[in-house]
Amino acid sequence: MKIIPASDSSLLVVFGNAISPALHERVIGLFHSFQARHDPRIRNLHPGYASLLIDFDPLRLTHDELISVVQQLTLASDSAVGRRANVVTIPVCYDIEFGPDLLDVSQHAGLSPEEVVRLHSSPTYLVYFLGFSPGFVYLGGLPEVLHMPRLATPRPSIAGGSVGIAGSQTGIYPVDSPGGWKLIGRTPLRMFDPEATPPTRLQPGDRMKFSPIDRATFEDIPRHAEARLT
Amino acid sequence: MTIRVVKPGFFTTVQDLGRYGYAHLGISPAGAADPLSFRIANLLVGNDENAPALEMTLLGATLEFEESTIVALAGASCECKAGFAQVPVNTAFDLPAGAALKCGSMTTGARCYLSVQGGFDIPLVMGSASTFVAGHFGGFKGRRLQSGDVLQVRQHGSFRVRSLRPGALDVLRAPRPLRVTKGSQQDWFGPEAFEKLFSSAYIVSEQSDRTGLRLKGEAVRPREQSELLTDGIPLGAIQVPQDGQPIILFVDQQTTGGYPKIANVIAADVHRVGQLRPRDEVGLVEVSIAEAVQAIGEQESWLKEIFVS
Taking CB atoms and an 8 Å limit, are B254 and A53 in contact across chains? Predict the structure, then answer.
């Protein structure tokens, strides 16, 4: 473990330099320990693949004080094994209208579209962290055969809820935005709602499964009744 | 009491001191780009320093006040008029009922704050009134102000108008380089990279906003090009993308990123970043973490001393 003062108001705790569930478990362990403390001197926690950035109020806490807290908490959280993760199921309609790149992905992978859907919806994914935009999840666990290059030209507008693949990543666009991921489906669920508590459906450290639904079910899940996440 | 937006200016939003505690959900703090001027504007009219106020950028707004109101402007110098009369900056003043306050172009600095006694009545989203434009939430309807918008003002409580000691803010105007500490990926860069970073004059690009300020000048490169595992971004981080042109990540920044961060603007100089204009020239100078912590402590003491007691 390496502790780097990233700025006068933050500390970066680096557990390693790889994307691995084992390293990530240590990141989430420390993240949860800090969350449980409700320390008003800590302003923000930013988990990454293998690190945790801790942003604090430099008028009320010093780097040295925080370093010793980090050391105590990592000792305690590293020994707490077998934490049970929250498993969240996200229904996805892999209809060609929602997944305009599904055929392209299936050609690239040398599989039928049905096989792509089966492979994409079979793993239990790990939510490494959220970043890029509110509610945007970085998921681990995409089967290698589905790894795909991005679109050469990003689309100017993608509907919120769209599910896509880029490189070794799969994910969900939480709100309407531009983007270059290859789209294979869409969830009818709202992934980000600033008025809800919590505002996102997924949290760092959650496990997640995609569950295929047909077009009729997609239309049936009333988006507006789902507007609040809780 | 209401205020009607006659002209919104170039980019005017409701802000407070930011939205903290949600970075792990991908939510940046937003908040005033120059938190020091923002606080001064609020303290002048007797508000809590975190009361929602307007952040105007480069070109100010024209606003119509329904009732007589105590207001204050602080930050960039900006020619402001109520009717034909020039109004003072960095001083609380009384606007008569029906008056139109017209704020013009900013001559030095990029952002001017308008506080009203009582503060704007803005529903809190995740504990803050700050507008996060990219996320379409917070502030007034999650967006910048437009002509015809009507803002409500809170008028409860008792307020004590304050005034600044003469010349108290002169120290903010002295041009000097931005102070930075070494950043998260400082090991990625050799001495030549830091020498370039600290000796060059950079120009603030036109493509700069609340998410980040792109600097144009001497390219800075890591020892070798390797992939960084995406990690958290502190406020004011200076990241170096492939082209070597540094970017200062700012209040509306992404919470995580994959470019190496060579340095970080110190907390006591964040307010100066908020006043940089496109085409401004800016230098960077290194200080230690200890010096940076001392500077933010001194700035807090200074803020308490600039008001006439």
Answer: no
